[in-house]
């Protein structure tokens, strides 16, 4: 695959920026809003904690596997580039199509939808304002990302540092001022299927998702063969530790039955209980900023996939979508395109349902990429980074990916058919676009 795009995009992101993008993109709404749903699926606090740890381990093995692949292909486009180089143009296109039409806009809409819940409570507004506030936030962050990539990267660093404050407060308060045993709490009277560890782990993976997006900026990272693997691996490890501590802290502070009743409002309730109305609002503001950082990381990265596909003339309107601003080298049209699709999904989908379908769709292609490490090992002898404990780490990541796919198919077959249908629609579009450009 050609990589001429690297002559136009700026390689200006160092390890601090890359690591901040990984951590900032992962830590968003999931850990704050998924505690209730993970508990409901797991059936007990012990199994819920195990679910968060399992989700982190699956994500870490995935990150270690992709780190080896990404170090060999440090190009703009990430997963789209990997799949094409390993499996060919058609599967490569479908992986890119999935990210720019389904996964990217849906994940942005989902995080913004969760964020708007806090924003409505923060400003004391009615639920009518949830979607308008989420749309305004997406548009504002999108406008910022129309500038040079350093601006979006700097915002990621600032928000990543800022989000550590509410996280630290929740962990300290729960661990040292909580009076409940984090292990062994059970719940009853739930209408959902309890004791289903598979569904619980699936819910946690939304909280861990986003780590691979740094690979889409491969063409803008300094010394990507070294820094890309470091950013992915250490970013996931940091998040795994933080998520485990937050989950234990939440169960220390509140009984499982109350967490079940509060659902998405669990963390907001803890904030108001500990710090009162003003302190609770300040903590909620920190969490809102955290989610803004996550949205920023996703709006920073997904347009790069659009740009990479447009450079290859794989999608309609490739010429405008591949446009970069002369000075800042920012893909402004591609960014606008992602914002519009995210807004549409925000209006028509529930954020919680959307989050699970996002994870399922992207893991279909993650799993293909995980298999690809065995293919690349046969092709290439030189590897800037080698996955440790090969082949066991890649095999765990593959089984983790298959586990996600099967769990979601069994849990929500109708949603799976809908999202897979949107992905498959990309095939005739691919052939029509290629035919159009051949005739010109």
Automatic annotation (TrEMBL):
Gene3D superfamilies: Amino acid/polyamine transporter I
Location relative to the cell: Membrane
GO molecular function terms attached to this record: L-amino acid transmembrane transporter activity
Keyword Transmembrane on entry: yes
Keywords: Membrane, Transmembrane, Transmembrane helix
TM spans (from-to): 12-33, 45-67, 100-123, 129-147, 154-177, 197-218, 230-254, 331-348, 354-377, 389-410, 416-433
Record flagged with keyword Transmembrane helix: yes
Membrane disposition: Multi-pass membrane protein
A single Gene Ontology CC term: membrane
InterPro entries: AA/rel_permease1 (IPR002293), AminoAcid_Transporter (IPR050598)
Pfam families: AA_permease_2
Name listed for the protein in its UniProt record: Amino acid transporter
Organism: Limosilactobacillus gastricus DSM 16045
């Amino acid at each position: 695959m050609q990589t001429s795009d690297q002559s136009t995009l700026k390689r200006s992101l160092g390890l601090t920026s890359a690591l901040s993008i990984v951590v900032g993109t992962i830590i968003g709404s999931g850990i704050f809003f998924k505690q209730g749903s993970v508990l409901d699926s797991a059936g007990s606090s012990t199994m819920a904690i195990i679910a968060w740890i399992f989700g982190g381990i699956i994500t870490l093995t995935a990150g270690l596997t992709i780190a080896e692949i990404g170090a060999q292909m440090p190009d703009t486009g990430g997963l789209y580039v990997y799949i094409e180089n390993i499996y060919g143009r058609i599967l490569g296109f479908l992986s890119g199509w999935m990210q720019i039409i389904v996964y990217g806009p849906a994940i942005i809409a989902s995080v913004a939808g969760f964020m708007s819940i806090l924003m409505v409570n923060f400003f004391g507004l009615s639920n009518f304002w949830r979607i308008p506030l989420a749309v305004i936030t997406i548009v504002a962050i999108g406008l910022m990302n129309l500038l040079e990539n350093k601006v979006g990267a700097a915002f990621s660093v600032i928000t990543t540092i800022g989000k550590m404050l509410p996280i630290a407060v929740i962990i300290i308060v729960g661990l040292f001022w909580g009076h409940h045993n984090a292990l062994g709490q059970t719940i009853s009277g739930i209408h959902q299927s309890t004791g289903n560890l598979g569904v619980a782990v699936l819910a946690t993976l939304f909280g861990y998702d986003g780590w691979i997006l740094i690979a889409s900026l491969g063409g803008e990272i300094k010394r990507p063969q070294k820094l890309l693997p470091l950013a992915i691996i250490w970013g996931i490890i940091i998040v795994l530790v933080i998520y485990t501590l937050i989950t234990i802290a939440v169960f220390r502070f509140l009984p499982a039955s109350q967490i079940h009743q509060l659902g998405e409002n669990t963390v907001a309730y803890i904030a108001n209980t500990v710090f009162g109305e003003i302190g609770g609002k300040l903590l909620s503001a920190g969490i809102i900023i955290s989610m803004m950082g996550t949205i920023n990381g996703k709006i920073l990265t997904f347009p790069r996939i659009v740009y990479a596909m447009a450079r290859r003339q794989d999608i309609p309107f490739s010429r405008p979508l591949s446009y970069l601003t002369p000075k800042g080298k920012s893909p402004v049209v591609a960014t606008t395109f992602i914002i519009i699709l995210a807004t549409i999904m925000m209006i028509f989908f529930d954020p919680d349902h959307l989050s699970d379908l996002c994870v399922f769709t992207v893991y279909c292609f993650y799993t293909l990429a995980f298999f690809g490490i065995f293919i690349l090992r046969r092709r290439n002898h030189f590897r800037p980074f080698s996955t440790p404990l090969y082949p066991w780490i890649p095999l765990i990541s593959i089984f983790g990916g298959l586990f996600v796919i099967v769990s979601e198919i069994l849990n929500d077959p109708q949603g799976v058919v809908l999202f897979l249908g949107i992905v498959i629609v990309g095939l005739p579009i691919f052939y029509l676009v290629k035919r159009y450009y051949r005739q010109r």
